[in-house]
Amino acid sequence: MPAPPVTRRPDETLAARGGWVELLRAPAALFGAIARVRGWMYARRLLPSYHVDVPVVSVGNLSAGGTGKT
């Protein structure tokens, strides 16, 4: 019986390539740490949040031009 295929996470695949991809590890780690600390601060109400009396719809990742919106 053949062995099952080995699957790697995308970051492991990129790391195996080495080179310029490795330069992104430090900024990515820093961004992740900052995002976690910010979320922790909001969860503990150390940063202010605002409540409004109307429904809010937030839409992200939109850009102008032909970027596959159809």
Give a written overview of the molecule:
With 70 residues, the chain is mostly helical. 39% of the residues lie in helices and 0% in strands. The longest helix is centred in the middle third of the chain and has 19 residues. The radius of gyration is 20 Å and the shape is elongated.
Which parts are unreliable, with pLDDT below 50 for 5 consecutive residues or more?
Answer: none
Residues in helix, %: 25-40%
**Strands, count:** 0
Radius of gyration: 20 Å
In percent terms, what proportion of residues is strand?
A: under 5%
**What is the N-to-C succession of helices and strands?**
HH
> Please, how many helices?
2
Largest sheet: none
Distance between the termini: 46 Å
Shape: elongated
Counting copies of identical and different chains, the oligomeric state is single chain
Mean pLDDT: 82
What is the structural class? mainly alpha
Task: Describe this protein with a few key phrases.
mainly alpha, 2 helices, 39% helix
In terms of topology, how is this protein built?
Layout lengths: L9 H8 L7 H19 L27
Question: TL;DR of this structure?
Answer:
The chain is mainly α. It is built from 2 helices and no strands. 39% of the residues lie in helices and 0% in strands.
